[in-house]
Write a structure and sequence with these properties.
Layout (H helix, E strand, L loop, with lengths): L5 E4 L10 H10 L5 E5 L7 H13 L4 E5 L4 H4 L2 H4 L7 E4 L4 H8 L3 H11 L3 E5 L1 H4 L4 E6 L10 E5 L7 E5 L7 H10 L4 E5 L3 E5 L4 E6 L2 E6 L4 E2 L12 E2 L2 E6 L3 E3 L4 E2 L5 E3 L5 E3 L1
């Protein structure tokens, strides 16, 4: 079986109207036959966060939805907490605090089970903090602003479902271009993905990302860039030059391995995130 799909959602996704992103998650998980696990460890709302998604997924026709709210590493290693993931076809990580998520479940049996299910073909989605945790390198916290500066953000280890990328969320709404540029300056081997609210990147086993939702995904490729990040001190602005930047709204595709947009004849974006070519 091939790897499953990964969906990174920028947060504040539509849960009421068209629900384009959540509909796509449910469809990939198997529709009415989906077995969905909602992990709300990142959320300060506790089990209430999972209950909200249970209601939404239930309204979309899912009958088997199981919440998990591990609040300690002991719970994340408890077989009783891990058991619901054994046959999950869809795993959804809520928003909240990504450092709480990684510090609580990183390196535990729960994290291993998420990776195992993804390798077995399950779709794994994360919104906001949950999206940040999908990559191997994760933004733990940082400052807003358009100008990249030294010490603007800190990194931690994520789940590693999307290797060699780093995901930032609420991107346009919270003015986070500067911190993503600063991290790419310091780590040019990583591909930066800045995901707007109510927007998602759907990454298939072929590592091609499709953009769906209302906003855009900003792709920052610093593989050919130059920087003075290594000699800047304090919180001063740093120089980064030669970055390749892509801003991709719904309907466009990007190959994360080749670091290039997937060209489609006469491609234009349609409402609802479906691509059309004439």
């Amino acid at each position: 079986m091939s790897d499953g799909t990964v969906i990174v959602i920028g947060g504040a996704e539509d849960k009421v109207r068209d629900r384009v992103i959540l509909n796509r998650f449910v469809a990939l998980a198997g529709g009415p036959d989906a077995k969905i696990v909602v992990i709300s460890t990142a959320s300060s709302l506790g089990p209430l966060a999972a209950e909200r998604y249970q209601a939404v997924f239930g309204a979309l026709g899912c009958r088997r939805i199981r919440p998990i709210h591990a609040t300690s590493r002991a719970e994340a290693n408890d077989p009783a907490f891990v058991r619901p993931l054994r046959d999950a076809t869809g795993i959804f990580l809520t928003g909240g605090n990504q450092l709480r998520l990684s510090a609580t479940i990183g390196g535990t049996k729960l994290a291993e089970a998420i990776v195992d299910r993804h390798l077995a073909g399950a779709v794994v989605a994360g919104t906001s903090a949950g999206a940040s945790a999908m990559s191997s390198h994760m933004i733990a916290f940082g400052a807003s602003g358009g100008t990249p500066k030294h010490r603007m953000a800190a990194m931690a280890a994520g789940l590693g479902l999307l290797p060699s990328v780093i995901v930032d969320q609420h991107f346009q709404q919270r003015n986070r271009l500067g911190r993503l540029l600063s991290l790419i300056a310091q780590n040019p081997s990583l591909l930066g993905l800045g995901v707007d609210e109510d927007t998602a990147g759907v990454v298939g086993p072929d590592h091609v990302m499709e953009v769906i939702g209302r906003g855009s995904i900003t792709v920052v490729d610093g593989s050919r860039s130059e920087t003075d990040a290594w000699e800047v001190h304090g919180h001063r602005p740093l120089m980064i030059s030669g970055v390749v930047l892509h801003s991709l709204p719904a309907g466009y595709r990007f190959d994360l391995r080749r670091r290039e947009r997937v060209a489609t004849p006469a491609l234009h974006a349609l409402p609802g995130g479906e691509a059309a070519s004439s």
